[in-house]
Amino acid sequence: MDYFNINDGLKYHFEQRYKGDLHIDKKSDVIMEFPIGKENLVEKYVTLEKILNEKWHKNTNLGAAIKGDGVLTDHGVGHIVSVMAHAGILLGDKIKKLYGYEIYLLLLAIHFHDLGNIKGREEHEEYISEIMLEMGDILPLDIVEKEFVIAIAAAHGGYVNGDKDTIRYVNLDDNCNGIKVRAKILAAILRLADELSDDFSRSEYNGIDIPSENEVYHEYSKSLAPVGISEETVSFHLLLFTVKNLLNKFLTVNSNGECEHISCEIWKKTKDPAFTEEEFERNIQERVDRLKKG
What we know:
Blueprint: H1 10-19, H2 41-56, H3 60-69, H4 77-91, H5 100-112, H6 128-135, H7 143-154, H8 183-196, H9 212-222, E1 224-230, E2 233-238, H10 240-250, H11 264-268, H12 277-293
Antiparallel strand pairs: 1-2
Helix pairs in contact: 1-5, 4-8, 5-7, 5-8, 7-8, 9-10
């Protein structure tokens, strides 16, 4: 019995690898893609995913609200599905370069990357281990697997020693239960897929008055059309009418060139690595001026 079809992306590839119908793109005829003794991984994954979707993901936004963080954009099941889809699209044919076990751990990391919001938005990536502990025996992971999933998932945001480049600190051995697992690569895939999953579908809260402290993030998401990914090109599409409303309502830049109402974190996500910080600040101001002029 197959649980997933080709439209399920990462999950389909994981299942087919586990069954032995698909293989990693290697020259050797003998490739071990999963640890010895790890039986029924697909069935265990399916069971866990059902529990996460029905009992945990639906509470992510609710938990953040109870902790005083207002109404976040969607961090529930819809977002998880979107991140998985974008990760699969990003990988494309290169998914053949990953071991089946790596795909499995990536899927789990995607499921866990935002669950910490249940404990509050601030530093939510640091609550993953606490969430896992609360899950108890329903979580079919050993200690080593938990370590890898936590490290991969936590690197999607936050800071390490004041550094926002959290991926550089994912320094696990490239070995999990005897299988090669490149945690830093998986963390990079998750983080980029997470960023690319931000679009207007994450703010479909019709009839709800969004608190002022959250409103800018909802308006920002509403201004983003789904990205286009083709081979090595990612195309971003801003909905100009929504962007103008966003800028007119929220954006002011003070005399020091600092964003006052729109979070600078939003703008810094668009930084071209070729720019110095000074050049980037000027670039932001130029883009804002152009959009305001229409």
